[in-house]
TrEMBL record:
Protein name: DJ-1/PfpI domain-containing protein
Domain DJ-1/PfpI as annotated: residue spans: 4-170
Amino acid sequence: MINVYSYVLDTLADWEIGYVTAELNSGQYFKKQSDKVSVKTVGATKESIVTKGGMKVIPEITTDEIILSPSTVLLLPGADTWDDPRHKPIIEKATELLECGATVAAICGATTALAASGVFDERIHTSNSLEYLKMICPNYKGEAYYRNVKAVSDNNLITASSAGGLLFARIILAKIDVYSENTLESWYNYFNTGDPKYFYNLMDTLTH
């Protein structure tokens, strides 16, 4: 069982994790021998939050209920409220997860919280820009490990810019190995280009 936890907080940027949560939760294109995946929302408390898109989300569990395991995946979305002290425990949990071999995937504003905690000091990463990280996080020391790309993976740490949601999803899906290589390539190419031929390619991969 792969336990995927999607952290939710006020002003969450809905679109940034939309691709990956939809695919992991639905399992519609999973390969036949794929591990089962459980997707749960996690909050600082179980009080409802409101996303940037105006949707109300009630967290299913709290940070202390996350299972520490190499098969765990923690998704940290962008939001304008990462500087709220109530989110410190999830960043501490992210560090514990990285240390135990679990996957932590952060996009946009969530990267600032990891940068501020020192996670990026010796790991390859990206964000909205290097200048953005340095401005938001005065104690950031990871400039040598910054990569100017939409999304990047360094072993079990995956990071992305606000424009990298699709590539972010592809890297996560590849990491946990729930799609066949051909299915993932066709899926990504279709949403990246909009060319219908890739959709038919995607459907074809599911019949073989």
